[in-house]
Amino acid sequence: MLVPLGFGQRSIVTSLGRMVYYTAEKMPWLELSAQASENKPNLVFFHGFGGGSSAYEWSKVYPAFASEYRILAPDLIGWGRSEHPQRNYQVEDYITTLIEFLEKTCDSPTDAIASSLTGAIAIRAAIARPDLFKSLILTIPSGLSDFGQDYGSSFFAKLVNTPILDRLLYSTAIATDGGIRSFLEQRQFADSRRIYQEIVDAYLESALEPNAEYAALSFVRGDLCFDLSLYIAQLTTPTAIIWGEKSQFTGPDIGQRLASLNPEAIKVFQSLENVGLTPQLEIPAVTAGLIRQYLRLLSQG
């Protein structure tokens, strides 16, 4: 896994296995005073789901905050370098392990950043344990079955529900250099000129981890999808939402409808033109600037 300069790998144990995370621990992030480093507030980055997903997704953004925050960027269970249990994953698995991660790494309410379906799961984790969250900054948070839409009825989801064929599709159409590049170009990025080989390599490395297909296929089948509109009104954590206008799966109109269900908690809804599903990879400098602005705004209550 490609890790930014000055960051190292650590891990904690969750109920589903070992979860790896990345944090600043080397030059140029070493503090002159160890106490100053210990007193930094926590800032956690949770990546989204898809073939080859990992903490790499946020690696062009989180170093920008390393001088001010204690950065934690985990590979979620079933992804990256974390353990890959052979199981059919359910949304409750990720609500539980997100909560366990924060319990074991953070000793106070934490600013958390999350993307896509994981952003929707983070909302549910914050509803269940509001004491763990100081704020949420989310890029395109969607349960992918919002307002009664049924992702599981889509052609691709039904195709991946076919035994044997699902593994074949993963190995030949998803976990390959061409498969990943095609998805990035056609589905994930609004502008394919922003894709470079390092991104493809990072996704492919994660996709080829032993048993990586279990979490990826659970996601593609729709096992992790849910209707976020049924939960979002319960959120009390101050939240900001960033939405790429060219997101292939859920457009900004869905985001606006979700945000309108809880204007008290959701302080900001910002759409970005000519941006797709992962602004953190497509326009990382703009994304970092927005996060910095929202951290200040949300801290004011």
Describe the structure.
It is a single chain. The chain contains eleven helices and eight strands. With 301 residues, the chain is of the alpha/beta class. The chain has an eight-stranded mixed sheet, with helices on both faces. Strand 5, helix 3 (116-128) and strand 6 form a beta-alpha-beta unit. Helix 6 crosses helix 7 (197-207). The longest helix is centred in the C-terminal third of the chain and has 16 residues, at 284-299. The N and C termini lie far apart (37 Å).
TL;DR?
With 301 residues, the chain is of the alpha/beta class.
Layout of SSEs?
Elements (H helix, E strand, L loop, with lengths): L6 E8 L2 E8 L9 H5 L3 E5 L23 E5 L16 H15 L4 E6 H13 L4 E7 L15 H6 L4 H10 L2 H12 L8 H11 L4 H10 L17 E6 L7 H9 L5 E7 L6 H4 L1 H16 L2
Parallel strand pairs: 3-4, 3-5, 5-6, 6-7, 7-8
Antiparallel strand pairs: 1-2, 2-4
Contiguous uncertain segments of 5+ residues: none
Regarding quaternary structure, what we see is single chain
Strand order of the largest sheet: 1-2-4-3-5-6-7-8
Average residue-wise pLDDT? 92
How many beta strands in the DSSP annotation? 8
Helix share bin? 25-40%
- Radius of gyration equals 18 Å
Total count of helical runs of at least 4 residues: 11
Q: What percent strand?
A: 15-25%
Cα end-to-end separation: 37 Å
Structural category is alpha/beta
Gross morphology: globular
Biggest sheet layout? 8 strands, mixed
- SSE ordering: EEHEEHEHEHHHHHEHEHH
